Each structure stands twice: as C-alpha cells, then as structure tokens.
Amino acid sequence: MTEWIKDTRAESNEEILLDVVARLDRHRAGRIACEIHLSLLRPYHRRPHHLRIARKTLDPLVRKFDAGIYDLHNGNMVVIAKGATLAEIDDCVSQVRTLFSEDPLFTGAHGSDGRGAPDELSFCTWYDLAKDFDALLRRVRTLDDARKVAAEADAQAARGGFVRSVGPDIGPTHLEQIEKAIEHADLGNILRRQDVCAIIPGLRPEKIYHELYFSMYYLAQTLLPGHNITADDFLFRHLTRVLDRRMLALMTRREMLPMLKGAALNLNVRSVMAPDFMEFDKSTNVQDRGSLAIELPAIDVLNDPGDYFFARDFLKERGYKIILDGLHPLNLPLVDRDWLGFDFIKLIWVPSLFDDSKGQRAAALKAAVARVGRERIVLCRLDDDLGLKAGESLGITLYQGRLIDGMLPVGRGNAASRAE
C-alpha cells in the first residue's frame, strides 16, 4: 500500500489514513485493519515512550505484510495489512497488550472512582475490508472530525491566552545568577509551612507536624521570572544545597525559633554534615526546636549510603528525628526501616497508586505499609481525593498536600502552599 502514499508532510495522520482507506475501495480483498484503543489506558501508561515502544512492537507487520501503521491524535493506532490473517496480526497486537498488562483495563482494578474502563475486548476493533470497508471508512471519518474539533479547541485556547508555558530551563549561567541573588535576598517572604495530618474516616484531620520549606515557584518568579528552575535535576539539586544554607541561617533568627517546634526541615545529606548545620545546631537547642525532624531525600540515601548512615547517627545523637523523603510508592517494598533507621517515610502521591492499591501490587504494598508502620508513612503532594482512597486502602493514615490544606479550618491551612 506504500505506493499510494503521496507527499503528506502538511497532512495529519487522520487525513493520511482517510486518503489510504478511500483508495482501498477497489482493493478490499485480503486486507484487514485493526484499531488499537490505547486511549483506554490510564494516562500514566500513555506517555510518549510507551507509545513509541508500542509502535515498535508492530514493526514486524510492516516488514512482513507491508502494513501501514497510523498514530492518531487521541493515542490510538490503526494497522492495515495485506495478506495477513487475523491471527498473524493479533500475535503482534497481543505483544502490545502484554506491555500494558498491569493497566486496570486488563486487571479489572477499576475501583469506585467512576472511571471504570471497558473490558479487554474493547482494546481492539477489527475490520475485514472485504465486508467491513464501509464501517472502517465511517470510523476514520469520525476520527478525522474529532481531530479537527480538538485542533480548533487548542487554537481557541491559544488565542485566548489559556496555554501556560513552564518557561525555558535554567542553565549553568542562570544558576550562577540565582546563587548570587539567593545569597543576598531576604527569603523570609518565600518561606512556607504545610501541615502533615492524621486522617481517620469520619474525623477531622489532626496535625502531627509541619514542614518548613522555600516555595520554588515564588523563588523562580522573584529571581528568574519565566524560567523553570526544577527541570534539570543536577542543577536543581545544587541549587537546593544553596537554599539549605539560607534556610539554616534564617531559622536561627529569634523571631523564627517558635516555628521550629513540631517542625521538619527538608535538607540534603551533605548539608547536614556542613559547617552551616553545625552552627545551626549550636545556635539552637532542644528547648528552642523541640524534637525537630530533618527530611533527607531518598535519592541521597541511594547515591551515598555511607554518608547517610554517618549523618543519621549524628542527627540521632543530637536528638533529631529523621524522615526519608521523596520515595516513589513502588519502591516502598524495598525499604527496610530498621536497617535505615528513619522515623518516618514520605511517599509521593502519583495517580497510578490508586490502581496499584487495588491491583496486582496491592498485597505487596499493604505488606510494606504494615512492615514500616502505618503511623510512620506520609502520603505527600496530595492534590486528589483518589489519594485518600488509595491511602485508606493501603492502611496509610498520614497525609500532606493541597487537598489536606483545604480540609483544615480557616487559618490553619497553608494558603501559600498552592505553588511549591
């Protein structure tokens, strides 16, 4: 069918597909088409790399049957092959299905969120062109119409100024500029606090402690407007060490000392072993700071466990609590709290956790929560009530995030936490 493809650089894939199908009107015999409904998968299974791998899995059909593969605007794919049996095409389609075998579309872990997926049979729609040509043509026209509507909606949003850009990434030159600005800026106005609360169904949230941190959003808007300061992990982690020094200096001010009671500071492991922290420890005392907790990034523990254990022992000796911060939920079963010696662990809320809490990984996650201690795990960055449902399903009781801020009485929530 490749002989029918003309110069289509200005056309959409739907337009190309419509042209190809129209030309097949007189060549229906021996051709089978299949629409693979990848759009039915959860969003976290439809990222660009997932779609690229799915398409690559179908490549044998191109080589063996001169098949055409068309990527559509909604994420679906259409395959049209000549001289192949349905079983031969389904061999490749089944491999695509296997790639996403843990998606709720196939596991049935749809839950009660009102977003239940269709059954597995809906993953593909088959067309034998000898008898289903008209149905395929109607379907492709529908897809093309939907693309036009979506394109027009995007254009209207752009004309109305509703498209928000995260801005260009920072580079080494920007980093130097930000560092100099941070060293001389009064960062008190971008200091934020956010409560960590225990939530039991039917009861009001109960505050356990609060985290003190600098708002990255307002830092960027103040020092480098329009730039994305978190895009480059290496540069951003360097920047956080600069901010750690300023945080420690800021919190030794007399007017700031009351904020340390029942608080947690987010610091890098290297920052804990630096002179700035020694000065902070010397300038404050247990009476000032109470049982202050230090949140250490999980990535620091993995990168240099030796430094972590050294910092852990020092902090414990000085009376600090330790929180392992920023762990992906699927890493929880790998964590041994007794060996690592932390007091709390913070899991990052990701939408896939809702499905994992009810699917094939649920048993392992529940066992991990029980092993670490349900009262020692915080599900953080929570902005979706599905997170509460997932946490409740797994036995988690501690939460932090914008959703929790909105549940607190007026005056207790952190209004400024809307942009981290």
The tally of beta strands, per DSSP, is: 12
CATH architecture name of the largest domain = Alpha-Beta Barrel
Tell me the name of the CATH class of the largest domain: Alpha Beta
Name given to the CATH homologous superfamily of the largest domain: EAL domain
Fraction of helical residues:
40-55%
Number of domains: 2
Structural class: alpha/beta
Main beta sheet: 8 strands, mixed, barrel
**Approximately what portion of the residues adopt beta-strand conformation?**
15-25%
Mean pLDDT: 83
Largest sheet strand order = 5-6-7-8-9-10-11-12
Number of helices: 19
Terminal Cα separation, in Å?
52 Å
What does the overall shape look like?
A: elongated
Condensed summary:
This protein has helices spanning 13-23, 48-57, 59-65, 86-99, 104-107, 129-159, 172-184, 216-223, 233-250, 269-272, 275-283, 286-289, 298-303, 305-317, 337-340, 352-356, 362-372, 385-394, 402-407, and strands spanning 31-36, 68-71, 77-82, 124-128, 191-198, 206-214, 263-266, 293-297, 321-327, 344-348, 377-380, 398-399.
Structural account:
The protein has an eight-stranded mixed barrel, surrounded by four helices. It has helices spanning 13-23, 48-57, 59-65, 86-99, 104-107, 129-159, 172-184, 216-223, 233-250, 269-272, 275-283, 286-289, 298-303, 305-317, 337-340, 352-356, 362-372, 385-394, 402-407, and strands at 31-36, 68-71, 77-82, 124-128, 191-198, 206-214, 263-266, 293-297, 321-327, 344-348, 377-380, 398-399. The chain folds into two domains: 2-159, Alpha-Beta Plaits (2-Layer Sandwich); 172-418, TIM Barrel, CATH 3.20.20. The longest helix has 31 residues, at 129-159. It is α/β, with parallel strands linked by helices and 420 residues long. A hairpin with a 5-residue loop joins strand 2 and strand 3. It contains 19 helices and twelve strands.
